[in-house]
Amino acid sequence: MQSMTAQEKKRIFNLLKTSSSWLCGYESPDFKNLNPEFLDDVEAEPLELPKDNTIKEQSLENPQKGITLEALSVKIQNCSNCILCKTRTNTVLGEGSEKPLVLVIGEGPGEEEDKTGRPFVGKAGQLLDKMLNAIQLDRNKNCYIANIVKCRPPHNRAPMPDEASACSGYLQAQIHILKPKMILAMGRTAAQNLLNSEQGINALRGKFFDLNGIPLMATYHPSALLRDESLKRPAWEDLKTFKLKLKELEPEYDKLS
């Protein structure tokens, strides 16, 4: 049998997982909580280091820089880790301040976002901007807006579990690069994926969670508010709570122009 690399094995596993999830219409029970680690069939020959300190000196002279948003964008544009790459028009990395106080995370690109390559630009995006402005946040000044997945799911459906998993590394890289003070998760899909939870948005919203040292709060997605105006009042209460916490961390943030 021909030997396989770890990457080739992972691609086959993801293909089987995706196919099973599509047949079920939800995350396949056969793959639930299954995250195997793959190894190359042939181990690489051990690297012989030089007896002097050439490598050490070179690494000191040319320190490796961390990944940038620009480099991450290129990786995402060339990504084929899940089936969403087959139907996308544009990938959507995100946009906003590169030193944000708040990272806003939604579900995934919709039709307008897929056309423009920008996050939250349709009616839901217009409402999101108003929600943020109400607590002195702005995507052009002190926020960055991203999504769980970077490609549009067909018909604006929620991302499948394997699709979210395929994109999770990109989102984690964004969090590492941006280093936000707080995270605002918009809607059930964002909250469940970030918190690794199966609870609904009603149970998760309005309270703070710790995401690797970053305070995170979830609230209703703007699309939900457009469908049901009765949710606007509890969403506003969530935003006020979020603002109070942000002022604890950055007392003067709302006074900055």
Offer a concise description of the structure.
This protein has helices at residues 6-24, 54-61, 69-77, 111-116, 123-133, 161-178, 188-195, 201-204, 222-227, 232-249; strands at 95-96, 102-106, 143-147, 182-186, 208-211, 214-219. It is of the alpha/beta class and 257 residues long. A six-stranded mixed β-sheet has the order 1-3-2-4-6-5, sandwiched between helices.
Give me some keywords for this one.
257 residues; alpha/beta; six-stranded mixed β-sheet
The helix/strand class is alpha/beta
Shape: globular
Going across the major beta sheet, what is the strand order?
1-3-2-4-6-5
What integer value in Å does the Rg equal? 21 Å
Poorly predicted runs of 5 or more residues: 42-64
| Mean pLDDT value | 85
Share of helical residues: 40-55%
Strand fraction? 5-15%
- First and last CA, distance: 64 Å
Number of helices: 10
- Beta strands, count: 6
**Quick one: biggest sheet?**
6 strands, mixed
Task: Give the helices and strands as they follow along the chain.
Answer: HHHEEHHEHEHHEEHH
